[in-house]
Every structure is written in C-alpha cells, then in structure tokens.
Amino acid sequence: MKTSRIVVLPALAAASLLALTGCFQLPPVGGNPGGSGETTAPSTDGGDTGSGDTGGDVDLAGTSWSGTDAAGNAMDLVLEEDGTVLLNNWNDENWDEPTDTWEVSGGEFTMFISGIREIQSLEYTGPAAEGEMQLTGVDGNGDQGYDLTLTQGG
C-alpha cells in the first residue's frame, strides 16, 4: 500500500504540472480572418518605406511606437528596417515572433502580429503617418474590435 502511494503521488503531481503548463503555452501559429487555418502575413521586405517613387509613402523604418488597442492590448514596438516588428512589450510580456511584420504600400500601413493565444493573430491597417496612426484591427478569427492608436516615440 505504501509503495503504491509513493509511486502514485509523484505521478499525479507530474500530471497536474503538465496540465497547468499547457495552460500557459502559446498555441501553434495559425488561422486567418478567413478561418482556413493558414496564417497569411504581409511580406517581410518592409514594404514601401518612403524611398524612390512610392507615391508619397511615409518612411517608418526604424521608428518606435506605443499604444493600446480597444481590446486592451498594450504594446511598445519598433518597425524594423527589414519589415519585421520588434515587440519590446506586449501586455507586460516580452513578445517577439519572427512572423510579426509591417509594410506601407500606397499610403496604407499594415502590421501583422502572430502567435496570440486564442485569437491567433492581429492585423492592423490604416493610413500611414508619422507621429500618430489610427488603425483598424481584426483578429485571426475575423473578429473586429481591436482598433488601435499608435503614438510614435512612445
């Protein structure tokens, strides 16, 4: 009897720990607003960043931004020169995925953030600007309600 208790208790503790650990892990990246299970992100070339004849696009490469969307997601980020987004802070967590991208094309800014638990991803779009941008946000399930104001240099 005592031998089985010695074996069973650690096994139960290990199973409980595994179950709790699973609650904190991020799900695999996947899903898009169309719900096909495939993640589609903007290109990672940085898009048009204001050089050449881009039709007046704003050069946002290397700029820092901060804001909180309508769903309460607070973020501090850098729009990297290579078209990726460096999230220095996402809801008080260090959050940076290599598939987080941004681009400016035709005066329109698009930022894609992936690997976000239940909602899987967020895509923010709106007019590109320096200083402040008003963006519309949609999650990976196609749900709206993530509108975002980003302030430069914050």
Structure description:
With 154 residues, this protein is an alpha+beta fold. It has a domain at 63-152: Lipocalin. Helix content is 15%, strand content 35%. The chain contains one helix and eight strands; from the N terminus they run αββββββββ. It has one helix spanning 2-24, and strands at residues 63-69, 74-79, 85-90, 101-105, 108-116, 120-127, 132-139, 148-152. It has an eight-stranded antiparallel β-sheet, with no helix packed on it. A hairpin with a 4-residue loop joins β6 (120-127) and β7. The longest helix is centred in the first third of the chain and has 23 residues, at 2-24. The N and C termini lie far apart (63 Å).
Output the CATH class name of the domain at 63-152: Mainly Beta
Poorly predicted segments: 17-55
- Written as H for each helix and E for each strand, in order along the chain, the element string is HEEEEEEEE
Task: Kindly report the spatial arrangement of strands forming the biggest sheet.
Answer: 3-2-1-8-7-6-5-4
**Shape descriptor:** globular
Distance between the termini: 63 Å
What is the topology?
Layout: H1 2-24, E1 63-69, E2 74-79, E3 85-90, E4 101-105, E5 108-116, E6 120-127, E7 132-139, E8 148-152
Antiparallel strand pairs: 1-2, 1-8, 2-3, 4-5, 5-6, 6-7, 7-8
Please outline what is shown here.
This protein has about 150 residues and is α+β, with helices and mostly antiparallel strands.
Defining key terms:
Lipocalin; globular; 8-stranded antiparallel sheet; 35% strand; 154 residues; 1 helix; single chain; alpha+beta
